[in-house]
Amino acid sequence: MFESTPLVKRIFYLNVASFILTLILANLNISIFNLFALWSPESGNFYFWQLITHQFLHGGFFHIIFNMLALLSLGGHVEN
After folding, report:
1. Is residue 37 part of a domain?
2. CA–CA distance from 34 to each of 9, 19, 27, 40, 50 (Å)?
3. Model pTM?
């Protein structure tokens, strides 16, 4: 059903790990969204790394589930 390449698997694991880290830090009242979410350059909260890191943030359990299903379903085909 899922024909994933090694790169797609790495992206999958990075997404899941970042989601779990977000949950752990949220329980400690630490928000990583200010540093890693993508902000407008005019906002004063913009950092260059946000161009990459915002892709690994998810808004909730169902958000990451559906995104990872789409990644596993389509990622290998898109990469090829």
Report:
1. yes
2. 27, 15, 16, 12, 10
3. 0.76
